[in-house]
Amino acid sequence: MRTSSDLLAHSAMFSPVPQTSAATDGKKKLIYDQDHRGPLSTDTAATLMLLQADNIDLLGICTVSCDMWAKQETAYALRLLEIMGRTEIPVFLGAQEPLLNTKAEAQMRYQMFGARSLGDEGYLGSFAKDAPGRDEINPLPPPYNRFAQIKAQPEPAADFIIRTIRANPNEVTMYCGGPMTNLALAVMLAPDIVPITKEVIFMGGGIHHSTSSVNVYFDAEAAKICFRAGFSKFTVVITDLAEQVHMQDDGKVDEIVQRAQSPIADLFREYEQKPQRANPQRRSFRMPDEMMAANAIDPSIFTGYDEMCVDIVTHNDGHYGDTSFWDADWKNRGGELAGQNNPAIKAGRVQVLNGINKKRFRELFTDLMTRPIRRSK
Amino acid sequence: MGATRREFMKTVGAAIAASRIPIEGAEPEQSSEAVSGAASSPRTPAGKKKVIYDQDNSGPFGTDILGTLMMLQAESIDLLGITLVTGDAWMKQEMAYTLRLLEMMGRAEIPVYAGAEFPMLNTKEEWQLRQQLYGGHRLDPWMGAFNRSNGGPDEIKPLPSPYDRFAELKAREEHAARFIIKTVRANPGEVTIYAGGPLTNIALAIALAPDIVPLVPEIVIMGTGFHTFTNTFNIFFDPESARKVLRAGWPKCSVVTVDLAEEIHEDDELAPGRRMIDEVAGRAGSPISDLFQKYAVEPVRQNPKTRLFRMADEMIAAQVIDPSLFTKSEPMYVDICTTPGPRYGDAMFWPKNWDRAPVAAKTVSASDRRVFVDPRQYYMGPPPSAGVVNVPQEIDHDRFKKLFVDLMTKPIRKS
To answer: Can you tell me the distance from the alpha carbon of B229 to that of B224, in angstroms, rounded to the nearest whole number?
Structure first.
């Protein structure tokens, strides 16, 4: 078993903060914060999209615990960069625990108050009963095959986020594909980054399909901090929208296996095509993180958004992590009941994507997966 | 002419005063008028269903009143009594409407009982403070008696047309909860309870007399929701009472959700080109036709964009009158959040067989673990005391609308 010291570079080896190079021209500067579950998941698929897109300048990858523990995720992220030939991208080990939540409490809350059951919202990721331990780094299956030679940076993800945003004011898009623990830490340490962050993109919460999602209820306090912080642009993919497209829809998996290069073809063959053929009843997952990546790469795929206010329930009971949404223009609604539909006093302001052109999304996704692997020189 | 407001207040006031819940063992009845004539119903004709109708009967029109009209018109229903509770309006205002409606409908024999004037714990002041802190309801900000524009519990506004004046009819003196207890005990296994408003009266009744729970063949409740929204007025107005009633373990507790109620609105068409409200306004007897003309047909005519309300209380009336209209129902666990805060009054649901729900396939590999939630890894069930309820999932739209229009347009059923 790997130990954590194998993962991180020694202090002398850390790479400088990616500085602005306007030479990068038209590319969107993006910090990719992700609970990077391997070998293939919605997380990894989004990573592949952002690696393949030629209009994204991926400044760094930060990991955070949720789907897996951060160390295991970091092992996957490093090796993925190696087999994709993109070792110039620095990787930062992020928060290994949520701000307040613990496995014992999450389990006990479910026993005491009942777990969510109507959606698939009971999922607790690395807080599952028999999940591996926090410091366990298990070997990586094919096509990863072994641990990477490259190492993660010794600097915590939150510090990297702060320095990068400060060095590139009004230019950095913050992609948060997991719980927002790293961003919340950054905001608490350095509130000055909030007005100079170009955009935050997040997947979490739901309005009708489900009232929360694991990215929020794994670390409800972090979500609350980030939503309330006052970012000028905060784009949210909610479960309702993500549920509209599943990985196995439209035969795209078969097309990708057929036309993509290695290692992308291998990943999809082994972890989507094979399981689906072995069990045709299997319901493939929705595509939330891929939708977020699509929003970063080509926002015109989305047909609109609603200006909304959002707040998070952090009561330590069955509703821990619930999202509450209100309309930003609530004063103009409600008629004679105007004023009774108000947002919570400290609710944050977000833009909730409310429609997607499925055909264009499928085409973008397939195109990114099947084009030649974009390697660094 | 009709009773003056002062006389009306004295009557209702007397009813309220007499309804102070007495200490166990004390004899509550004060006057002969308080004898519940309906405690036992020797006159109930065979084949009729005995019903206690508990309602926040707010007028002049709307889902409460329409539920009431359905129950008054249905031949198969023996309406033992109407018990009122504060919800959509304050109880005294609802009493004014109810008594006058019975008078206009010629049904003075049905006793009316004053019930809980306040919810178990919730207060207007705290609700207003919570609303600032935690936010109001985005989709359905209705707070009934607690609406900002509403007055206090003793304020009784004059009744508009076609009501026009207060009734001469009076309420009984006994508290609604006492009436419920006595009636159920006197007619074991026979009395269906219709609960169209907050569940305060019901909670009071079963707190005083838990023995009545197994004696009620069915209680039908309007409230809770899955996806449309989980926080619904009847429940969040008095979450403590709702939680108590839903956990009680009734032989059958049917819950019509907001999701189902939203499928049919008052201004929907009975058939292409024929709206229900036009049918009723045109063909019903008075006062039903007058009510529909003034409060349904006219507003929509003046503003065609008006969408009339969902038919919630009418649906639970249908569950009482003809449950075959519901083509699919599921048993489910339900519980209500009573933590004062952003989820005060929220409903949570679990399928009854949550622990035997099919996990669609065994996990094929570690990476599939996320696709299906593995019950060995995650407890996915209800809290320890959650109750099981019967939740209608589908209703036959055509048959429901037909039942509704038939009941509204048939000759006014007299005593």
So the answer is: 8
Assigned domain for B52 exists: yes
For residues B207 and B188, what is the distance between their CA atoms, to the nearest angstrom?
18
Closest among A335, A328, A285 to A305, alpha carbons compared: A328
Confidence of residue A118 (pLDDT cuts 50, 70, 90): low
CB contact under 8 A, A337 and B348: no
Interatomic CA distance for residues A45 and A36, integer angstroms: 10
| pLDDT tens per residue across span B175-202 | 999 999 999 999 999 999 999 999 999 9
CATH number at residue B76: 3.90.245.10
**Is B343 in the A-facing interface, judged by CB distances under 8 Å?**
yes
- Assigned domain for A138 exists: yes
B133 — contact with chain A (CB < 8 Å)?
yes
**Across the interface, do A340 and B136 touch by the CB < 8 Å criterion?**
yes
Which of A41, A116, A279 faces B370 most closely, judged by CB atoms? A41
d(C-alpha A326, C-alpha B299), whole Å: 28
Q: Which residues of A touch B134 (CB under 8 A)?
A: 311, 324, 344
| Full residue range of the structural domain in which residue B168 is found | 5-23+30-265+309-352+386-409
Residues 228-247 on B with a CB inside 8 Å of A are 228-230
Residue B156 in contact with residue B5, Cβ under 8 Å? Answer: yes
Give me the total of CB pairs closer than 8 Å, taking one residue from chain A and one from chain B: 161
End-to-end CA distance of chain A: 32
| Domain annotation covers residue B101 | yes
- Give the pLDDT of residue A377: 59
Give a yes or no: residue A375 inside a domain: no
B359 in any annotated domain: no
User: Chain A: nearest CA to B76, how far in angstroms?
Assistant: 37
Q: How confident is the model at residue A20 (pLDDT cuts 50, 70, 90)?
A: very low
Residues of B in contact with A306 (CB under 8 A): none
| Residue B372 domain-assigned (yes or no) | no
pLDDT at position A234: 98
Query: Which chain A residue's Cα is nearest to B136?
Result: A341
Q: Nearest chain B Cα to A246, which residue? A: B371
* Across A252-272, average pLDDT: 96
User: Residue A329: which CATH number?
Assistant: 3.90.245.10
Residue A18 lies in a domain: no
**Is there a domain that residue A95 lies in?**
yes
Domain coverage including residue A242: 4-10+24-370
Q: What angle do CA B218, B219, B224 make, to 5 degrees?
A: 135
